[in-house]
Amino acid sequence: MAVIKTLGQFIIEKQADFSYAKGELSRLLRDIGIAAKIVNREVNKAGLADILGDAGTTNIQGEGQKKLDVFANEQFIAALTSGGECCIVATEEEDHIVQITSPVSQDAKYIVCIDPLDGSSNIDVNVAVGTIFSIYRRKSTDGLATIEDVLQKGTDQVAAGYVIYGSSTMLVYTTGKGVNGFTLDPSIGEFCLSHPDLKMPEDGVIYSINEGNYVHFPDGVKKYLKYAQVEDKETNRPYTSRYIGSMVADIHRNLIKGGIYMYPTTSSSPNGKLRLLYECNPMAFIVEQAGGKATDGRNRILDLTPTELHQRTSIFIGSKKMVEKAEEFMETYSPVA
Ligand code: P6P
């Protein structure tokens, strides 16, 4: 009889790994897990509840907000507020940082950057969507935490994770000691350890990119795509193209099977589309902890210095050998559009 290990049990068990604010980080991770279960409940019945379609509002990116991403944003902020371990939330859905000023949170030690519902354009067509989160220590020591506490390099993350609301709902996270995956068992309402010590295959045959942007890609990307499509049995080419339009789902598949996800600069997105703080940094931390690699085509994602809350970057992330091969093409040909 397999022993069930819940997310809560695992977090407590691994608490000894934390050298700073052990109990607080454990509590924060559990708070995120609780909000994920609430969001999952709504995602799973999205077609029934009156939360499909647009909320009529737009986020700072000018993207139409679907009701479910507004709901998800509210749930995570509420969970982090009641948990009391987080003093600031930086979220894709809010133009500015959200100060958690409840008395309990005044001396909270952590900052959370979050994309509450990534890939939300897929909600109405029943395709996997995800939540992405990143956790930093607060650096300031007095008064209210500020944007300076949020603009930290990816190498300063203390934890990062994602939730994928797919054929099953999984929570995958790291605290810098490897990557572990938990699958939600709806019959007991618990995330249970299902993918201990996840490792990304060093190489792969899957590439994920929106080829609709082909004419706008840098030459290095165009050359890499042609390399991927040319037959060469020794290097298992042509590769397979898989693009879901949901970064969490594409990267999760590549984490399990091997592969590379790319969102390069294009002429319409000269700095790339994906956001550094709450999409690329957390996913890069997780993928590196699983043995993969994440760069902007030349520079390590985790080393990039954030200067703005919703800053964008190009990203090449996945199996180490595939990212390195793509970097070779970026190095040889023009690295920008
Ligand atoms: P495009 C979703 O909006 C997202 O941020 C990622 O999850 C996804 O991979 C990408 O953008 C899709 O962008 O331009 O290909 O539709």
From TrEMBL:
One of its GO terms (molecular function) is fructose 1,6-bisphosphate 1-phosphatase activity. Its EC number is 3.1.3.11. Mg(2+) 1 binds at residues 92, 115, 117. It catalyses: beta-D-fructose 1,6-bisphosphate + H2O = beta-D-fructose 6-phosphate + phosphate. InterPro entries: FBPase_C_dom, FBPase_class-1, FBPase_N, FBPtase, Fructose_bisphosphatase_AS. Its cofactor is Mg(2+). Its main location: cytoplasm. Keywords: Carbohydrate metabolism, Cytoplasm, Hydrolase, Magnesium, Metal-binding. Signal peptide: none annotated. Residues 200-330 form the Fructose-1-6-bisphosphatase class 1 C-terminal domain. Pathway: Carbohydrate biosynthesis; Calvin cycle. Binds 2 magnesium ions per subunit. PROSITE patterns: FBPASE (PS00124). Residues 5-196 form the Fructose-1-6-bisphosphatase class I N-terminal domain. Mg(2+) 2 binds at residues 115, 118, 279. Homotetramer. Belongs to the FBPase class 1 family. This is Fructose-1,6-bisphosphatase class 1. It comes from Pedobacter flavus.
